[in-house]
Amino acid sequence: MKPIYCFAQNQISLIENAGVPVGDLLVQRGYGIFDYLRVANNKPLFIEAHLDRLFNSAKIMRLTITQTKEELKKIVGELIEKNNIPFSGIRLIIAGGDAPDGYTITAPHLIIIQQPLEAPPTQMATKGIHLVSHFYQRQLAEVKTTDYLMAVYLQPWMKSVGGDDILYYNNDSVSECPRSNIFMISQDNTIVTPANNMLKGITRKNIITVAEAHHLKLEQRDISLSEMKKAKEVFITSSTKRITPVAGLDDQKFSLEGPNSLSAQIFGHLLALEN
Predict the structure, then answer these.
(1) Model pTM?
(2) How far apart are CA 177 and CA 241, in angstroms?
(3) Which of 36, 73, 87, 161 meets the CB 3.0–4.6 Å disulfide criterion with 119?
């Protein structure tokens, strides 16, 4: 098996030799942040946007990243060159720091992991997923924290009711899935996505850019669960899969519009951004 290198304890080393101090707040209290970006043909995609979000998360969480963005880009580049995994994912983790009392933020630890990833398809999936809704609001929703407690806890329930992923909602407004943003296409072909109470994903950001560039009508606003169930199309977005169509939400089924759909057009525009 090909050896894989990571960055930890201020150096690049084999992943099996790396570790996090047991006194770190990430271990003791689950306190940390991360960001995740896709690598295609050994090129880190949208790394500037991912680093901007990482630094914003760090600011909100009162974590001081000692490296500059340019230094992080250099480390990521060295890791990509050393591992030579053309299609992969890069996870940058900022752990809370080695706290003697297990409760106080100290100098954080930087961990960067690269893992193989299947290249996403160049056409949007024709088979949709089924979402099940759950009443929940993440803490500090605008931050990409390492806290996925509820998402992991709900997995057995989700599978038992035939779901492929979970859609969070609160006060009757949908927000996000645990690892993706949610969009709908209304009956008048308006692209609609929640404006608040969720993590603003990089693919979400790119879709907004695409919509503006191609004069597509887009709204960022509250969406009730009942309104979403009346949509023409529903899809989720993420860095790893771009756009995934939704075939059902709870007991509501959606017809998949196929290659001529508005979501398929958006998918094509996203592909163009990567080149």
Answers:
(1) 0.95
(2) 14
(3) 87
